[in-house]
From TrEMBL:
Keyword terms, alphabetized: Metal-binding, Oxidoreductase, Zinc
Cofactor(s) for this UniProt protein: Zn(2+)
Name the record gives this protein: Alcohol dehydrogenase catalytic domain-containing protein
GO BP, sorted A to Z: protein tetramerization; small molecule metabolic process
Family: Belongs to the zinc-containing alcohol dehydrogenase family.
CDD domains (UniProt xref): Zn_ADH6
Source taxon at top rank: Archaea
Domain Enoyl reductase (ER): residue ranges: 10-349
Listed GO MF terms: adenyl nucleotide binding; anion binding; oxidoreductase activity, acting on the CH-OH group of donors, NAD or NADP as acceptor; zinc ion binding
Region span, Disordered: 1-22
């Protein structure tokens, strides 16, 4: 089969003929219909995230936001059949650890990041395999467009889980989203769907314009203001600050700005992973956090059972993940699309749908 194959950090990737994946006894093999192209792919292509144990090795196949049709089912699988249209979270669980048993499969003790390790290759290929299918694989509703939901594996799911499950967000609350790439725009859209007032923060005007389309009520263009947290607070009643503030980018500046945009008792939600500049470490205004009793939360992917909440909101017309898809590309265009993400040129979510 054809696949985009990684060789060395920062070097152009190529389309190669590789063996088709073997079906795990507890897993499935899926023919790829669509796969989101994520900035996380760019980080892995650059060789980032060694500080969290991710090491991109020659021969790796990226692609962790897949949708496809099941071609083969392992003998130990009970809930998935050949012909099902499916998706899955990028952070695959084994289903057996204490976290999994409590419903927190996204933080499984044996979590496997699909498309970032050589023993769970990704979906920038004609076919891909998923282990522990009864835990990880989700059957899509019949009327769902594969391209529209190709961001559910990572960006939209991470934002949805963070906004709906990690943060305590209600209608009328104030939310600031720092960084309006794919995951940030997803956070804007979900927060708006829950009835929040959303302040979108970014350097790029086209990203802010897209955020407004998706429900942002106010915007802050970072290079036009002296103090981002003060601007965010200025939109809120009595300048008190945001009830929830999201860092959807992961650089030191956005993380600190997010924490400092909060109200008393506010919640910071960290969705973006850090870059090679931070290597996982960011200095924060700790005394402000203490004095105002602010919270610092993380959101990492989403357990498969929460997809039903997304599908219900889609069916009700409350959310539309497809509204964040910016373009479709072919498998041949994936290497260039990933490389361009270093310049933050992409608005929304690009999706590969030609294999």
């Amino acid at each position: 089969m054809r696949a985009v194959v990684f060789d060395e950090p920062g070097e152009e990737m190529s389309i190669e003929e590789v063996p088709t994946p073997e079906c795990p006894p507890d897993g499935v093999v899926v023919e790829t219909e669509a796969c989101g192209v994520c900035r996380s792919d760019w980080h892995a292509w650059q060789g980032d995230w060694s500080w969290v144990g991710v090491e991109s090795k020659p021969g790796l196949i990226f692609g962790h936001e897949p949708v496809g049709i099941v071609q083969e089912v392992g003998p130990n699988v009970e809930s998935i059949e050949v012909g099902d249209r499916v998706t899955n979270p990028f952070n695959l669980a084994d289903g057996s650890c204490p976290m999994c048993q409590q419903g927190h499969q996204n933080v499984c003790e044996q979590s496997v990041p699909m498309g970032f390790v050589d023993f769970s290759k990704g979906a920038f290929a004609e076919e891909y395999a998923v282990h522990a299918a009864d835990t990880n694989v989700v059957t899509l509703p019949d009327d769902v467009d594969p391209v529209a939901v190709a961001g559910l594996g990572c960006r939209f799911a991470t934002a949805f889980h963070g906004i709906t499950q990690r943060a305590d967000l209600g209608a009328g609350d104030w939310v600031a989203v720092h960084g309006c790439g794919g995951v940030g725009l997803s956070a804007v859209h979900v927060a708006d769907a829950l009835g929040a007032n959303v302040v979108a923060v970014d350097l790029k005007q086209d990203a802010l314009d897209k955020a407004v389309e998706l429900g942002a009520t106010h915007t802050v263009k970072v290079d036009e203001v002296e103090d981002v947290p003060r601007e965010v607070k200025g939109f809120t009643p009595r300048n008190r600050g945001a009830d929830v503030s999201v860092d959807a980018l992961g650089i030191a500046q956005t993380c600190r700005n997010s924490v400092r945009s909060l109200s008393t008792l506010g919640q910071h939600l960290q969705i973006g992973l850090t870059t090679s500049e931070e290597e996982g470490e960011v200095s924060l205004p700790v005394d402000e956090v203490v004095f105002d009793e602010r919270e610092f939360l993380g959101s990492y992917g989403m357990p498969a059972h929460e997809y039903e909440d997304i599908f219900r909101m889609m069916d009700a017309g409350t959310i539309d993940p497809g509204a964040i898809v910016s373009e479709t590309v072919s498998l041949e265009e994936v290497p260039e699309t990933i490389a361009s993400m270093g310049e933050y040129d992409t608005v929304g979510i690009p999706v590969c749908n030609e294999f």
